[in-house]
From TrEMBL, chain A:
This is DUF934 domain-containing protein. It comes from Denitromonas ohlonensis. The lineage of its organism: Bacteria, Pseudomonadati, Pseudomonadota, Betaproteobacteria, Rhodocyclales. InterPro entries: UCP030820. Pfam families: DUF934 (PF06073).
From TrEMBL, chain B:
SUPFAM superfamilies: Nitrite and sulphite reductase 4Fe-4S domain-like (SSF56014), Nitrite/Sulfite reductase N-terminal domain-like (SSF55124). This is Nitrite/sulfite reductase. One of its GO terms (molecular function) is heme binding. Pfam families: NIR_SIR, NIR_SIR_ferr. Keywords: 4Fe-4S, Heme, Iron, Iron-sulfur, Metal-binding, Oxidoreductase. Signal peptide: none annotated. Residues 119-273, 413-547 form the Nitrite/sulphite reductase 4Fe-4S domain. InterPro entries: NIR_SIR_4Fe-4S (IPR051329), NiRdtase/SiRdtase_haem-b_fer (IPR005117), Nit/Sulf_reduc_fer-like_dom_sf (IPR036136), NO2/SO3_Rdtase_4Fe4S_dom (IPR006067), NO2/SO3_Rdtase_4Fe4S_sf (IPR045854). The keyword Chaperone does not apply. The lineage of its organism: Bacteria, Pseudomonadati, Pseudomonadota, Betaproteobacteria, Rhodocyclales.
Length: 174, 561
């Protein structure tokens, strides 16, 4: 079963990710019963999915979070895909969802989600991190929780630190 | 200089701890080569031809004497007794073992040195004018702004995996000595009509294989909004920059393809939502940082020191050094000194452990314990009393740091090239040395006057060959090393890209070609006219004619251009 790191705890997770095969039609592809994360194209082409409550949209790097802006108040899960860990578009998508669009539900990073990026993920607003199934042993995943706290007091404002360091603390006069 | 508080120190210490664990997991097989790659790069570690190379950040070129001594210690203990100053305010060590890197970084952290974001697809070290704070033509001191940018860009969570590297430079003087229009973001400090400080912002400049001069994206951004505006530029780049082709991934490519107007529209549309947000700078924070960059405790001195004038009259070598290596200073009786790392026979920018110790001692003795590094790969002591210059010169000369050639042909910018760098197509250090030997006669060199010669071992252009008055680019032709020559490039306010004069040359021919170019200049120059001005006045044709004559390229031993 897939593992999910949420609120600094390791949980079992039952959501599945629907992939749209080449040639498949986003408007007609079947979304089976159960909890499904579906590509934005499917989410947009099948408006009825929003009413199910157990389907959530997935944003890829090239997707525009503005397309979900009107629905964000009612969504409880949005996923962002990292096709390769070195593809950093998802960090900006998360930042936009949290700050510009005010999304407050679960924001989940999926795909090539590795522990050495955990700290940056959470600071950009991801509160749920899902490494690839089988990537880490249970012991490694436990150890990986430490990466969430790599930096105690970072300089920047972010999802986890509303203010930058210079507004957070009275810094010593030089 | 900026002084760390506990928060700054904690972040650097935590970085060392993080990378120590990452290195441990790499050697334990828990991190793949591919996964470890960006982690080590963002800690300054390249795997080079011979050994890993460690690139350390010199934030906006400023160092304390004790930090320079630490470089000496690292060079002695972990390297082969020398290091190399790069063209972007970095120090590189070429022979450190990967296993020792965490230990080296931990030692460096004790004196506030680090290798954070000196490589990788992230925001790199910010660069600026080596004469910041002392230049006579300075409008606004760029250093506090560089420090604010350093803090904002260090471990910025959103911009650690950009499409490609990202470089920012700041200029606050009349003359741009930071090459700001060849940076991803170039910041020019300006005042508006109301006398308020702000930034004229250029975007999309860069050298490399597609050299482009940056374009103006904003004529005036008030200082409070510097960080949010830069964030919006970075965010648009991070989302829309090309990731399919490494050679088209720099911001300059998307700025060109969208056009600067459309790029600006996207940036400002994003900025509208973040402007005035928490990242807006405060007067209190600016004041706190700026307080680190107030003038040192200058003495009240006469404008000209009589002993200094006399010493120049008495010693021709001292006078020659003063002419080239000493600059004016905003305070009466003071001067700035450039210690040359361009002695013939030594790779440009290379410095030994004993020279590092000497530089630190000279800084402590004569310049308030501070040192700056220039992008031309020399060392600046910014605040020296005129009366101390003769003594300083004697000590620097004994240490091989007083070659009187600043701004002259032998003061060339040169990347490490094929001797060290795994990206290079051709060697650059032996070319530099061959040219230096050809022009070793000081009287001849001084007669030629100001001439900037820049050498890159490949089209990545670390040696800034595009903006050299003469540029030399190493190219690979069927496995052989050839050299393409450009003329007419320049840095500064009139930044201009040089033009290729014709087909490339074998290494052995390069000194002849440079000499022919110089002779052509000497034959055509007006009195007092610099090489670059002659090139722009008479055009490239007389130079091409002199080099290639009537021979067609096929008749010469050349590869196609």
């Amino acid at each position: 079963m897939a593992k999910l790191i949420k609120n600094q705890q390791i949980l079992d997770d039952t959501w599945q990710v629907l992939t749209l095969d080449d040639g498949a039609d986003a408007a007609t592809v079947a979304v089976p019963a159960g909890q499904w994360i579906v590509p934005l194209a499917v989410w947009q082409a099948q408006p009825a999915l929003a009413a199910r409550g157990d389907v959530a949209p997935l944003l890829d790097g090239a997707d525009d979070p503005a397309d979900l802006a009107d629905q964000l108040g009612t969504l409880s899960l949005v996923a962002v895909n990292f096709p390769r860990f070195a593809d950093g578009r998802g960090y900006s998508i998360a930042t936009l969802l949290r700050s510009r669009y005010g999304y407050t539900g679960e924001l989940r990073a999926i795909g090539d989600v590795l522990r050495d990026q955990f700290n940056y993920f959470t600071r950009c607003g991801f509160d749920a991190l899902q490494p690839p199934v089988g990537k880490y042993t249970d012991a490694q995943l436990d150890a990986a929780l430490a990466s969430l706290k790599d930096f105690t007091d970072p300089y920047q404002a972010s999802a986890t630190f509303r203010d930058p360091l210079f507004r957070r603390h009275a810094r010593r006069a030089a | 200089m900026y002084r760390y508080d506990d928060y700054d120190q904690q972040l650097v210490d935590e970085r060392v701890a993080q990378f120590t664990d990452q290195t441990r997991r790499y050697f334990a097989g828990e991190l793949t080569e591919e996964e470890f790659l960006p982690l080590r790069l963002q800690n300054g570690i390249y795997i080079q031809r011979h050994a890993p190379m460690l690139r350390l950040a010199i934030p906006y070129g400023n160092l304390r004497a004790d930090q320079v001594r630490m470089y000496g210690h690292i060079a002695r203990t972990y390297d082969r007794g020398y290091g190399h100053f790069t063209t972007r305010h970095n120090m590189q060590f070429n022979w450190c073992e990967l296993e020792k890197m965490p230990e080296i970084l931990a030692k460096l952290a004790t004196v506030q040195l680090h290798a954070i974001q000196t490589s990788g697809n992230c925001i790199r070290n910010t660069s600026t004018d080596p004469f910041a704070g002392v230049a006579e033509d300075e409008r606004i001191d760029p250093r506090p702004w560089c420090e604010l940018i350093r803090q904002w860009s260090t471990f910025h969570p959103e911009f650690a995996y950009l499409p490609r590297k990202f470089k920012i430079a700041v200029n606050g003087a009349e003359e741009d000595r930071a090459v700001i229009r060849c940076h991803d973001i170039g910041l020019e400090l300006v005042k508006n009509e109301a006398g308020e400080t702000g930034f004229r912002i250029f975007v999309g400049g860069g050298l490399g294989r597609t050299p482009i001069i940056g374009e103006e994206i904003a004529s005036f951004v008030p200082w409070q909004h510097l960080l949010t505006y830069c964030e919006s530029i970075l965010r648009v780049y991070n989302r829309f920059g090309r990731r399919d082709n490494k050679f088209k991934a720099r911001i300059k490519i998307i700025v060109k393809s969208l056009g600067v107007d459309e790029f600006r529209r996207r940036v400002e549309a994003d900025w509208a939502h973040f402007k005035d947000g928490p990242s807006t700078l405060t007067q209190q924070e600016l004041d706190r940082v700026a307080a680190c960059f107030v003038d040192p405790d200058y003495k009240m001195l006469p404008k000209t020191d009589a002993g200094y004038v006399q010493a120049q009259a008495d010693s021709k070598p001292f006078a020659a050094w003063v002419k080239r290596n000493v600059r004016g200073h905003k305070r009466p009786g003071y001067a700035s000194v450039v210690l040359s790392l361009k002695k013939t026979g030594v790779p440009p920018g290379d410095v030994t452990d004993t020279q590092l110790d000497l530089i630190a001692d000279l800084a402590d003795r004569y310049s308030f314990g501070e040192v700056r590094i220039t992008h031309e790969q020399n060392v600046v002591l910014a605040d020296v009393e005129q009366s101390a210059l003769f003594a300083l010169w004697e000590q620097a000369r004994a240490g091989g740091l007083a070659t009187p050639n600043i701004g002259l042909l032998t003061d060339m910018i040169c990347c490490p090239g094929g001797d060290f760098c795994s990206l290079a197509n051709a060697k650059s250090i032996p070319i530099a040395e061959a040219v230096q030997r050809r022009f070793d006669d000081l009287d001849y060199l001084h007669d030629i006057g100001e001439l900037e010669l820049n050498i890159s071992g490949c089209m990545n252009a670390c040696g800034h060959h595009h903006v050299g008055h003469i540029g030399i680019l190493g190219v690979d032709k069927n496995g052989e090393e050839w050299y393409q020559i450009t003329i007419g490039g320049r840095q500064g306010n009139l930044t201009h890209l040089g033009k290729v004069i014709g087909p490339s040359f074998a290494a052995a021919d390069v000194p002849d070609v440079i000499e022919t170019l110089v002779n052509t200049y000497v034959a055509h120059r007006h009195e007092g006219e610099r090489f670059i001005d002659t090139v722009h006045r008479i055009g490239a044709d007389p130079f091409k004619q002199a080099v290639y004559g009537d021979k067609t390229p096929a008749q010469r031993k050349v590869a196609n251009g």
